[in-house]
Design goal:
The chain has about 375 residues and is an alpha/beta fold. The protein folds into two domains: about 200 residues, Glycogen Phosphorylase B (Rossmann fold), CATH 3.40.50.2000; about 150 residues, 3-Layer(aba) Sandwich (Rossmann fold), CATH 3.40.50. About 45% of the residues lie in helices and about 20% in strands. The chain is built from 13 helices and 13 strands. It has a seven-stranded parallel sheet with strand order 3-2-1-4-5-6-7, sandwiched between helices. It has a six-stranded parallel sheet with strand order 10-9-8-11-12-13, with helices on both faces. α6 links the parallel β6 and β7. α9 packs across α12 and α11 packs across α12. The longest helix has 28 residues. The chain is globular, with a radius of gyration of 21 Å. The two termini are about 20 Å apart. About 45% of the residues are buried.
């Protein structure tokens, strides 16, 4: 039986986190397969820099909204309104496949097969960052996520560790796999390196744990630069805060940094880490199962709740140039193994399987 690629996909994304970066990378990579993507955005309207980043992607059409996301406070009225909007989009464009990068909308009465990709979730975030189960206020979230996952035809997670967590929280899943993320090495470069430490992420997010780096910055002999939105931690004497940066600005700062630090308590994959490795940075990461899965021996690790261990790992790279060169090389080699071509190819294989099954099912119904 010949398996057929979809002509058109309806894909959801949000504009306020790493899912946006993932979505654009995938849409760009899918150009080689001549797959048209209608990208339905939620969370907030696109910024001018985000609009600019879509212009080079010839197979992409944007449908924009600012509906609240399911992990936001009391979002369900807007989540349901977004569901009606998505149903209208499906009727308008008649896609061969639905690719959801969120959970709750999996329970909608889609006509096309549904692929759902897990990037993170509140329950696993809460367990990792607070060392306890999420409180009752998240029960509706948990129920809506589980219902959405139950109705998906296939589930993908960005790491095996996240897939195991999701299976335990919402499963079991019958059709699922891991597909690692990717970034185009051509978007990053190694510039004239300086003796500096760089990190980036939402400063308010306990999972990123950037506050720990900032609060202990006076213990490092190199200056620390941090990019991202949020309030500046009160103890941050050796840190320069850069605020939110555009993607080209991120690439420039990474090109100059010798060390990238992400002392995360929770990180299902870590796109910023991948970008840093492609930019010639040595990596110091939170000692998490997911990050060890993705990076193996290509990074140094520290307990995210042990400032002294974090300091030792960073100082070992500062004081030992040969170790720093070794770890930079290993990080770069590992990063290049997460290639966009392989990334898109694995999704294309799954798209073929789901699209073919969907078309066969429609033909079967038509002959009854």
């Amino acid at each position: 039986m010949t398996r057929t690629l979809p002509d058109t996909i309806l894909m959801t994304t949000d504009t306020v986190g790493g899912v946006w970066t993932y979505s654009l990378e995938l849409c760009t990579s899918l150009q080689q397969f001549d797959i048209q993507v209608c990208l339905a955005t939620m969370g907030d309207h696109l910024s001018s820099s985000q609009w600019k980043s879509t212009k080079k992607i010839s197979n992409l059409v944007i449908e924009e909204s600012d509906y609240a996301l399911e992990w936001m406070d009391d979002p369900w009225k807007e989540v349901d309104e977004a569901g009606q909007w998505l149903m209208e989009l499906e009727r308008k464009i008649e896609p061969d496949l639905i690719h959801l990068n969120n959970y709750a909308h999996g329970a909608l009465p889609w006509n096309a097969p549904v692929l759902m990709v897990g990037h993170s979730c509140v329950l696993s975030w809460w367990k990792a960052t607070r060392q306890e189960d999420a409180p009752e206020k998240w029960n509706t979230y948990a129920a809506r996520v589980k219902e959405g996952l139950k109705h998906a035809d296939y589930i993908v997670a960005v790491s095996y560790s996240l897939l195991d967590q999701m299976n335990g929280l919402y499963g079991p899943f019958s059709q699922c796999k891991c597909i690692y993320n990717a970034r185009d090495a051509g978007d990053f470069y190694t510039g004239r390196k300086k003796d500096m430490i760089f990190s980036m992420g939402r400063l308010w997010d306990e999972a990123k744990n950037i506050a720990s780096l900032c609060e202990n910055s006076s213990r490092f002999s190199w200056p620390v630069y941090v990019a991202g939105a949020g309030d500046i931690p009160s103890e941050s004497g050796n840190v320069t805060f850069l605020g939110p940066l555009t993607q080209p600005e991120v690439a420039e700062w990474l090109s100059r940094a010798r060390i990238y630090v992400m002392p995360a308590r929770y990180e299902p994959f870590g796109l910023s880490v991948l970008e840093a490795a492609l930019s010639g940075c040595a990596l110091v990461l939170g000692d998490l199962r997911t990050l060890r899965e993705v990076w193996g021996s290509a990074a140094l690790y520290a307990d995210p709740d042990d400032p002294e261990e974090l300091r030792r790992r960073i100082q070992s790279l500062i004081q030992n140039p040969s170790l720093r060169r070794l770890m930079t090389r290993k990080a770069g080699e590992k990063a290049r193994s997460y290639s966009p071509r392989r990334f898109a190819g694995r999704y294309a294989d799954l798209y073929r399987e789901l699209t073919t099954a969907g078309r066969n099912e429609r033909l079967k119904k038509a002959t009854l």
